Amino acid sequence: MPCTVIVGAFWGDEGKGKIISYLALKDKIDFCVRTGSVNAAHTVWDGKNRYALHMVPAAFLHPKCRLLIAAGANVQVPKFLEEVQLTGVKDRIGVDQNASIIEEKHAIQDKTSAVNKGIGTTGWGVGPALEERVRRTAKLAKDIPDLKPFLADAVTEINDGIDQGKKVLLEGTQGFMLSLYFGTYPYVTGRDTGASAIASEAGVGPTRVDEVLIVYKSFITRVGAGPLPGEISKEEAQKRGWFETAAGTGRDRRSAPFDFDLAKKTAKINGATQAAVTKLDSMFPKCKGAKKLDALQPEAKQFIKEVESRTGVPVVLIGTGPDAMDIIDART
Ligand code: IMP
Ligand code: MG
Predict the structure, then answer these.
(1) DSSP state letters, 223-238
(2) Which residues contact 92 (CB under 8 A, 6 or more apart)?
(3) Distance, first Cα to last Cα, the chain
(4) What does the pLDDT look like over 286-320, one tens digit per residue?
(5) Is 314 in the pocket of ligand 1 (CB under 6 A)?
(6) In this predicted structure, what is the pLDDT of residue 332?
């Protein structure tokens, strides 16, 4: 898997952070590239601590992994500096010199905009910051003195890494159904969140991507406004053990059962070659902590088989608990 794109299948919060942190440790990933922006929080557990990362790539758990922020990403400088400190990665993280900057004024514009209130954005200002980039008035990472020690030519590093056969993970943020182009517009984020766009933000051409790993959760969640087919009530979600709150904003997540037709469609459009299913233990509590396929109860195995048969994509990783290592790795 020299170059792998990780993409979320639904409305975000599928557990990409957990899958990335596992791959980082297990496969000893050489480069992990964060795309998108501060609106997305990736949750990582290292056995002791829980991190909700808004800027630092989730592969930081592997101490030899070079961490990069993509040229197409949007950097919120105070959050970046805070997380670099928290994770202790200052000597191995780089920010592409052309990444753009989200400023406090963008968050204010986002929060006060009536349109955005209807959408229920995260309030971080991602939409206004991207607007400013399109107007070509945005500040870039190379304009910010605090980022000077971290400036990098990430696009060259990543492509040289691929040439050398290094293991490169391109870390998508949010989910495909929040894509500006393919999601439930206008209830979407300010960018395309699909696999092609993730590669594009990182500066990797489509022929250089080896695997697209699509991440499904065993049920679907959504924060903010917009359609959610099959949505169940908060009470029902609590009863089923599916009720979650957002890692970033703390808002309640809405929930719905797994949608096989949607899973098939998103696998196709993203060109998925592999799939992960997270939180299988939320649907089948007896699976908690399982490390082998054989340890799964028949209903849980049947669910995984159905995901494979209906999407046409092999399920290679199955999440069975919050820790990075609570996983069934079915890769050969
Ligand atoms: P924005 O990305 O902050 O502009 O918010 C637009 C929509 O995307 C809102 O419905 C947010 O709740 C949703 N959203 C943005 N980032 C994430 C994420 O990382 N996980 C889940 N939903 C997100
Ligand atoms: Mg999240």
Answers:
(1) -SSS--TT-B-HHHHH
(2) 65, 66, 67
(3) 12
(4) 999 999 999 999 999 999 999 999 999 999 999 99
(5) no
(6) 74
Residue in the structure block whose two tokens are 């590093």:
157
1 falls in which pLDDT band (50, 70, 90)? Answer: low
Q: Which of 267, 243, 239 is nearest to 255 (CA)?
A: 243
Residues, CB-to-ion distance under 5 Å, ligand 2: 13, 41, 247
What is the distance between the alpha carbons of residues 16 and 20, in angstroms, rounded to a whole number? Answer: 6
| Cβ–Cβ under 8 Å, residues 270 and 214 | yes
- pLDDT tens-digit series, residues 74-84: 999 999 999 99
List CB contacts of 239: < 8 A, sequence separation 6 or more.
none
Q: Cα angle at 245 between 243 and 246, to 5 degrees?
A: 140
Answer yes or no: is the C-beta of 15 below 6 A from any ligand 1 atom.
no
Please indicate whether residue 190, judged by its CB atom, sits closer than 6 Å to ligand 1: yes
β-sheet bridge partners, residue 45: 50
Structure tokens of 33?
Answer: 């590239």
Nearest ligand to the CA of 123 is 1
Residues 215 and 9: their CA atoms lie apart, in Å, by 6
Q: What is the whole-number distance in angstroms between the Cα of residue 296 and the centre of ligand 1?
A: 33
Q: pLDDT tier at 249 (50, 70, 90 boundaries)?
A: confident
Say if residue 199 is exposed, middle or buried (CB neighbours under 10 Å; 0-12, 13-18, 19+).
buried
Query: Taking residues 140-158, what's their average pLDDT?
Result: 98
Q: What is the spatial distance between Cα 318 and Cα 307, in angstroms, rounded to a whole number?
A: 12
